[in-house]
Design brief:
184 residues; alpha/beta; two-stranded antiparallel sheet; 6 helices
């Protein structure tokens, strides 16, 4: 684990990880909750997210990174800033849950063009259904998904779902095991 990953994990533990009883977006209940946004909207957390996602993806051939609103928006922003700081242009995008009824009425926001290779990112992945929705919308836009990543995987079946949807690579930064879930 790199120093940036160690620091990011500590911030996730302090700001994003909660014990209790929670209903998840998947409909399941859990005795813990991870709100990645609490880390993503913090200055140090945002910086580290950008650097960690940059390090994870810098050797891939791709032109854009993004995912489902709202979770992917701050991650995308942090990552494209890190790419800029490392001397590489990178497009960001996000997929809306539903198209706006005004303006351009787009479902995919950003400067994606057909044929672009993209990475899809999320803050926390449980079963992976919302991430698969983002993948389908990006593919419908004419882009090729080269990888899916997340700050944290709850290890609840997403990896298998991604294989079923022919996602070529999946690499989360952390899993719930890194937070000590299931080991304490």
């Amino acid at each position: 684990m790199t120093e940036d990953e160690k620091q990011l994990l500590q911030i996730l533990k302090e700001r994003s990880f909660k014990r209790g009883t929670f209903r998840l977006a998947s409909g399941d209940t859990s005795d813990y909750y991870i709100d990645g946004r609490m880390t993503a909207v913090h200055s140090t957390g945002a910086y580290l997210i950008g650097e960690v996602l940059y390090a994870l993806t810098k050797d891939l051939a791709f032109e854009a990174i993004g995912g489902m609103e709202v979770g992917a928006v701050p991650l995308t922003t942090a990552t494209v800033i890190s790419f800029y700081q490392h001397g590489r242009d990178m497009e960001g995008f996000w997929v809306r849950d539903a198209a706006k009824v005004h303006g351009t009425q787009k479902l995919v926001e950003g400067n994606l063009k057909p044929g672009m290779r993209v990475v899809v990112v999320d803050d926390v992945i449980t079963k992976g259904t919302s991430t698969v929705k983002a993948v389908h919308e990006v593919r419908a836009h004419g882009c090729e998904v080269v990888m899916v990543t997340a700050l944290l995987d709850r290890l609840a079946g997403a990896e298998q779902l991604f294989k079923e949807h022919q996602i070529p690579a999946y690499k989360p930064v952390f899993t719930i095991r890194d937070l000590g879930v299931g080991t304490i």
